[in-house]
């Protein structure tokens, strides 16, 4: 049986905060860019073609910016949440990298 001390010692988010940030960057960045840069423009173009309009030229650039912003904010939040003091606060609410102590 794993003890609480062993689980706490295994929490890599606080031990390696930049790895947690990079994992979040990949986890959020891939779906954000695929969705906002790949899928959404296609859907918008189909809708606009049905009503006889063209997609605004700056829209794709705006969607790239939105995907970038979404990824950056999520990465920054992951890094902030990996700070030991923030993690300790989150643990009190059951949201930390380690289980809440009894």
**Category by helix and strand content:** mainly alpha
State the end-to-end distance: 17 Å
Q: Strand content of the residues, in percent?
A: under 5%
Kindly provide the radius of gyration, computed on alpha-carbon positions and rounded to a whole number of angstroms: 20 Å
What does the overall shape look like? elongated
Mean pLDDT: 87
**Order of helical and strand elements:** HHHHH
Count the beta strands. 0
Total number of domains:
1
Please give the share of residues in helix.
Answer: over 70%
Major sheet attributes: none
The unreliable regions are none
The number of distinct helices, counting runs of at least 4 residues, comes to: 5
Quick rundown:
With 102 residues, this protein is mainly α. It has one domain. It contains five helices and no strands.
How would you describe this structure to a colleague?
The protein is an all-alpha fold and 102 residues long. The protein has five helices and no strands. It has helices at residues 4-9, 12-15, 17-50, 59-81, 84-92. The longest helix is centred in the first third of the chain and has 34 residues, at 17-50. The protein starts with a helix and ends in a 10-residue tail after the last helix.
């Amino acid at each position: 049986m794993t003890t609480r001390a062993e689980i706490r010692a295994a929490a890599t988010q606080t031990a390696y905060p930049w790895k947690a940030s990079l994992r979040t960057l990949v986890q959020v960045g891939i779906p954000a860019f695929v969705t906002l840069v790949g899928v959404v423009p296609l859907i918008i173009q189909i809708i606009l073609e049905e009503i006889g309009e063209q997609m605004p030229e700056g829209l794709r650039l705006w969607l790239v910016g939105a995907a970038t912003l979404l990824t950056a904010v999520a990465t920054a939040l992951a890094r902030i949440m990996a700070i030991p003091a923030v993690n300790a606060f989150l643990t009190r609410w059951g949201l930390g990298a380690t289980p809440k102590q009894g």
